[in-house]
Every structure is written in C-alpha cells, then in structure tokens.
Amino acid sequence: MNHIFHLLHGYLSQIDAEDWYCATVVTKSGSSYRRPGAMMFVNPWGKAYGLVSGGCLESDVVHRVQRVRQSGKAEYVIYDTEDEDSFAASLGLGCNGKIGVLIQTVTPSYRALLQTLHQRMRNKEVSHLLQCYQSLQSNRLGDWVLLDQSGQILTITNPALEFSGAGITSLRNALPDKQSVQLIDDNYWSVARISSPVNLWVLGGGLDAHVARGNGVFVVAAHETGVGRSGPGVDHREPMMTDRRDIQAIPSV
Length: 253
Fold this sequence. Notes:
Elements: H1 4-12, E1 21-30, E2 39-42, E3 48-50, H2 58-71, E4 75-80, H3 87-90, E5 97-105, H4 108-122, E6 127-135, E7 144-148, E8 153-156, H5 165-172, E9 179-184, E10 187-194, E11 202-203, E12 209-214, E13 217-222, E14 227-230, E15 233-234, E16 247-248
Helix pairs in contact: 1-4
C-alpha cells in the first residue's frame, strides 16, 4: 500500500536509517496521480519506497536525490506535463497537470517528527504537516512543522524557526480539510491534513471478497469494487471460518 502510514512503518522499522531521503508532493495543479502529502523514501543505495506519481517520475527523483546528497540542500522540483515540450512530458506521464516535489535529507530531527506523526496516526489522531518549499527572504526551504488538529505546534525540525503572531493565527484559521498552500512570513508552505488509514470491514465471505493476512493486518480486496484497504473480514457462517481465509466469526443477528 502507498498510504503514508505504511510507508512510515517501513521506514521507521529500519535499524540503520541514516542517509535516507524523502520526496514529498507539496503542490499540484490540474490532474495528477498523487495528491500533495504523498511521500517517497529513498535509502542510501537508491532503492525507493512509495510513489509521487504513477511510476514515471520516481527514477528522476532518485537521480535528483544524488544532487541533494552532494549539495546538502533541499531541492524543490516542478514537473509540468501541461507543456508538451517540457522534460516532465517526455517522461510519458498520463496526467495533464503540474506537481511540485520537495526532495531532502531525512536528518534526526525529521525522523523524530515522522515518529511523532506515525504514533499519532496509530492513535487515530489527525495532524497537519507543514513543509516549506519556497523561501523568499529567509533560508527556510525544507523546514517541517507538525501541528495537531487545532493548529498547536507539536514538533519543528528547525529550532530557529519562529512564526509571527499574525502568521500562526492566519494558519490556524485556515487549516485545510485536505491540502492547501499558505504564504506565512514571506515563506510558502504546503499544509497537508494527515489522518490514519481507513479500516474496511467486509461483512460476508462470498466470492466477492478475498481476505489474506499480511504483516499483522488484514488486507481486503473486494473484487466487485476493486477496493483495497486494511481491516478484518467478518462472517457468521461456519463453513467460512477457516484459517486459510482468516475470517473472524460473529453471532448471527
């Protein structure tokens, strides 16, 4: 699955997570495969986890990670498929739109923020992730801030970062339902609302549902709808109560 919860679980479970890199979709206009907030992690050996597109941009992102490694600075890249002569269009993207991707090193302060975010998702708590992708007068490019649902600051990757009173008030008054871009104190921030993954309960164990266990969770694929989510399968019929199907029995109502 490409949900950020599963990506964070995989990344945070790494014993040696030094020299990892993160690419995040922070802006978009027009059509795109991934919404702002979508993440992709790249390990020191260039192996990528997650997606920022439908599979066409990932190799270029991995290539740009090498530049970030050499420079030590975050990089904001715009992939524009609306322009037929652009580099992004030559990659063969199926969507006619534009996305902005922030690529940076995951230092210990970013890892700590991601740990907090992951724990909040485990607790079914809503968070807002701020990522500075364009800095006009100060070097804030790549800074992250994690807010709770009401807009209170939980974690900041840069201890020197301070918001003006007017800036934080404006931010709290405009927290998005999904994602937005805000200009705060001469810096452009992507603000993404992040919640825990959806749990899907499939009631019934007929041919329209197949349940398989993986990594401690139930992966449910409903064939009629093509939906893929995490959740248990429940069936009151004795013949369907088999270890192979991992069905939990419930009393008939």
